[in-house]
Amino acid sequence: MLIEKIKTLASEIHEDVISKRRHLHANPELSFHEYETSKFVKEQLTALGISFTEIANTGVLGIIKGGLPSDKVIALRADMDALPIFETNDVVYKSKNEGVMHACGHDVHTSSLLGTAAILSKLKNEFGGTIKLMFQPAEEVLPGGASIMIKDGALENPKPQAVLGQHVMPLIETGKVGIRPGKYMASSDELYITIKGKGGHGAQPQENIDPVLIMAHTLTALQQIVSRNADPRIPSVLSFGKVIADGATNVIPNEVVIHGTFRTLDEEWRKSAHIKMKKMAESIAEGMGGSCEFKIVNGYPFLVNEEKLTARVKQNLVDYLGAENVIDLDIWMAAEDFAYYSQVSDACFYRLGTGNKERGITSSVHTPTFDIDENALKISTGLMAYSAIKELGF
Ligand SMILES: [Zn+2]
Ligand SMILES: [Zn+2]
C-alpha cells in the first residue's frame, strides 16, 4: 500500500532530514539573501538526480517526472528565508549567523521538501505526471518571494493544477496537522500616516495647529472603518503600533507620525477601505487646520484554500495520520505570501504541528526561543509526498 511505503521511506530518511534541518537552522540567511541556502538545495537536488532551474534570484525550481503516463502537474512549495532575530536557544544547531534566526520554521519547510523530493524520487514508478518543487526566497519581506516566483514563470510551462504548501505551527502538537477550506489568512497592508500642523509653545494654542490632537481624533475615528463601514461578515483588523509625537510638556511638535496595519479577507473591501481611511484622515486633519499624508504599502493578498482541493488534501491527511490527528483551523489574521499562489491557482496551505508541551516546545514563531519537535520531520516529508501523488491521481 502506498501509505505504508511512504511511511517506511519517511522513517528511513528521518535522521538525514533532521541533519539537513539542523544545517539550515545553524546557517540562516535573511530574505533575498538565501545564497548558501540556495546552493545547499541545489547540491541536495543534484545528489538526488533531480533536475532544476534557478529562479527569482535565489529560488530553485526542481522537476520530478513520474514513470507512468499522465499530463497532470502539481507544485509543492517551501520558503527558505530567516528572520533578523538573535537566537537564544541553547542547542547544538544554534544559529551561527548572529542576529539571524530561522524563527519561522522555513528551515523545516526547506528540509522537509528535500525529504519529500527524496521519497518521490524513490517512488517514481508508482505515479505519473510532473511535480514541481518550488524553493522560494523571501517570504518574510515585501514584495514576497512568491510574487517573484510567479512573475518569473514558476507556475507556467507546465502549469500546475494545484500548489501545496505547509507551515510549522507550534500551537499544534507534533503528530497532528491543521487545515481550513476557503479563506484562511488575511491580506496585510502597512499604513504610514504623517499629520502635519504647526508647532510652538504649549502655552499659546492660538498660535499653533496641534498635530497631537489631530492624531488623537484620527486614531479614534479610523476605528469606525472596522466598526461602522466593514461588512460584519468580513473579518477586518486595524491596529496602530507606533505613534511618534516628539514634543514636550510645553512644546507642540510640527508633526506626528502614526504607523499601523490593516488586514482583511476580501479584495474589494480592502480597496474600498483604503480609500475610506485615507479620506477620513485627510478630512479630519484639514478640518482641524492641518494636513495629512496617508501612505499605504500593499502587502500580501488574502490566502484562500480552494474548497475542493482542500477537501481532497484533508482526506489525504486523514488517511495518512488518522482523523483524530487532523484539526479544523479558524481564520488567522496573519499574512503569508503563499497567498499569491492561491490568487492565481488552486492552492492549499496546511499547518504542520511542531509543538510538544511535555518537552516545553511551545514558543511561538518569530520569537528568539522558537524551536520544533523534530519528530514532525517524519510527518512533513511523507505527508506532502502522499498528497502530491494522490493529487496526480495515483
Ligand atoms: Zn514568519
Ligand atoms: Zn513563515
Q: What do you see in this structure?
A:
The structure is a single chain. The protein is of the alpha/beta class and 394 residues long. The chain has 2 domains: 2-185 and 302-391, Aminopeptidase (3-Layer(aba) Sandwich); 187-297, Alpha-Beta Plaits (2-Layer Sandwich), CATH 3.30.70.360. It has 10 helices and 16 strands. Strands 1-2-4-3-5-16-6-15 form an 8-stranded mixed β-sheet. Helix 1 (2-26) packs antiparallel against helix 3. The termini are close together. 49% of the residues are buried. The mean pLDDT is 98. Residues 104, 140, 365-366 line the site of one zinc ion. Residues 192-285 form the Peptidase M20 dimerisation domain.
Query: How many angstroms does the end-to-end distance come to?
Result: 12 Å
Mean pLDDT, all residues = 98
CATH topology of the largest domain: Aminopeptidase
Please mark out the parts with pLDDT under 50 across 5 or more consecutive residues, or reply none: none
Radius of gyration: 24 Å
| Percentage of residues assigned to helices | 25-40%
Query: What class, by secondary structure content?
Result: alpha/beta
Q: What's the CATH architecture of the largest domain?
A: 3-Layer(aba) Sandwich
Instruction: Please indicate the count of domains.
Output: 2
Bound molecules: zinc ion
CATH superfamily of the largest domain: Zn peptidases
Shape: elongated
- The CATH class of the largest domain: Alpha Beta
Number of helices: 10
